């Protein structure tokens, strides 16, 4: 339930000491990652310089799927607790995850063009990540509609149920696509050997850490933005109630009311 | 719960019996779709016969979208949603009843489409039991997931456009599994199709259970 | 004795619009209460709130002992409430009898009650087997009323029940309300047929701009809101 607040009680910023510290760390980490990815780590024997794309591609994939999982958990928690925080977290996480999914698909396509000679392949991972993208778009479309109609109490289970099904659906899609492609796997594409070592492994790990931090930083800002938006709506509500009640007490012609 | 489901399904099928929307609009559309596939793909080169499983299930998928939209248009007319909420019907019963009514209509559609695929595309049935089991399992999954997502979109002004984007990605596994199973049943080796049929059954079971549990939330709060 | 409806400072927000901006309403068992107010005052919203269809955003709202702020158990409340609204919830393709049977059975009504409701609402003969799509507005209202009667609700919420009914229909409605109250039900209605409704009601509550906190005498509120 939203509590009435003064406009002055709202800090019109999405930042805090925690986000600033995290932001600085992320920025520094990004710098280190760029150095590691472009200068320090060697090119791959097979993939040559294209391997450097994976330092972005793999972390964004991990973060995107994690974001999707967070939305599912937040939806489940909202259905249990009905608290605004979980509700907003589901939205924030899905939105940020969508951006990372897009980056992941884009870098994947470029990497595929260089390594496999094709932007798209019916690879289980590409297919299920694309489906994740569409599932997220659908969820956000529904959230948008819910956001336009109805307040916290009404907008209800619709988005929560879709959000709850988000990650399970990704799993089901992934599983079925995986099974399907493994039966029809063509031998034309040689997959890269997942065993990488030394500087390359370190860079990849660093990428995962830095992109996770970046994700959390974005998530915090997006969450706080949604929170402020919610509070502004609540402020408007108090005014609206007062204005509507005032209609029942018009000033009488004699001036006494 | 099952009494309410029977009441609901009976009501929906009675409305269909009176209005004939599925038989006079959706069914011709289904036949038209498989004819259009034939026109788009060269009928002489054997593409149609090879692609018949996939085309069959694409046609079913599109028709199920229409059937689901229709099932909830009935309820949206003249405040039916409020009436349903006020009725005292068990939401789980409403879910199962609506899903059952949709499933019955889809089965009828599939029978006609299957005949169309055999006659028009020249598909050859080699594994009839697998064909039947696949149809039943896939239909249960389509109806369960469709009812769940159908009610989500039902109260919204943009339901015609929202439902496909929400539902079709979810149904992608059904399309994959049903098509593989059909390939095995239409000229393939039937044994290879049964695991896919199992996947379909799992999908249907999952959505039936989830829908039974979650439908109350959806009916109450939107 | 516990009141059937207890609203205290009830606020209901639709979208971001406070349709109800503070309603106080006490209704005792067996009462017939008329809600009066101009269009847009919130009469329909009060009735829908009491039926458990809308959430209470602020304030207290207890209907038939059920707290509306508690989202669980709303279904049990709705079973005991009958709402006759602008929308009738009828299926166009089905006949009058089929509709009343469906909604009656949905609420566990006995077959005898359903048949009795059809007769009580004058839905007999050829009319009973006519599809709802081919009914007049008044006949639709009668059918919806029959659905409500067959459920034998404890609380009748009637939103403009006289609208669209002919003289016979209005008499029939008033008679049904009277016999419902005689058998222990409570009735809250809104109506623009003030003379008729005031004669029917025990008490009148005025709503202006979503609130019962009104500073003008009864009968003058129609001048307030354009």
Précis, in short:
The complex is a heterotrimer of chains A (257), B (222) and C (226). Chain B is mostly helical and 222 residues long.
Model description:
The complex is a heterotrimer of chains A (257), B (222) and C (226). Chain A is an all-alpha fold and 257 residues long. Chain A is 72% helix and 0% strand. The two termini of chain A are 34 Å apart. Chain B has 222 residues and is an all-alpha fold. Chain B has one domain. In chain B, helix 2 crosses helix 5, helix 3 runs antiparallel to helix 5 and helix 6 packs antiparallel against helix 7. In chain C, helix 6 links the parallel strand 7 and strand 8. Chain C has a domain of 158 residues: Rossmann fold, CATH 3.40.50.300. Chain C is globular. Chain C has seven helices and nine strands; from the N terminus they run βββαββαβαααβαβαβ. The C terminus of chain C is likely disordered. By secondary structure, chain C is α/β, with parallel strands linked by helices. In chain C, helix 4 packs antiparallel against helix 5. Chains B and C meet through helix 1, helix 4 and helix 8 of B and helix 2, strand 6 and helix 3 of C.
What keyword list fits this structure?
heterotrimer, A: mainly alpha, Four Helix Bundle (Hemerythrin (Met), subunit A), globular, C: 226 residues, alpha/beta, Rossmann fold, four-stranded antiparallel sheet, disordered C terminus
